[in-house]
Design goal:
By secondary structure, this protein is low in regular secondary structure. Helices cover 0% and strands 8% of the residues. The chain contains no helices and two strands. Strands 1-2 form a two-stranded parallel sheet.
């Protein structure tokens, strides 16, 4: 659980966490996500609610988008 950590990005290596069961990134400052996040196990629950993500980062592997407040989108 990495809520309220002011995270602005994730490393591409996030997809290497093959045993991860849950990734909770709510209420941060994420403006992008690496596509490698979809390499996490299918049973891994991914929550990125309440960040600043534009539509281009709404990958199908994400389970919960919550509300987003994109500051700058193309």
């Amino acid at each position: 659980i990495l809520n309220y950590n002011n995270l602005r990005g994730l490393p591409e290596s996030i997809g290497d966490l093959t045993s991860l069961q849950k990734l909770d990134l709510e209420v941060n400052e994420l403006i992008s996500l690496p596509v490698e996040i979809c390499n996490l196990p299918d049973e891994c629950y991914i929550d990125v609610g309440w960040n600043d993500l534009c539509e281009e980062y709404h990958f199908d592997c994400i389970d919960d988008w919550g509300g987003q407040s994109p500051l700058t989108c193309p």
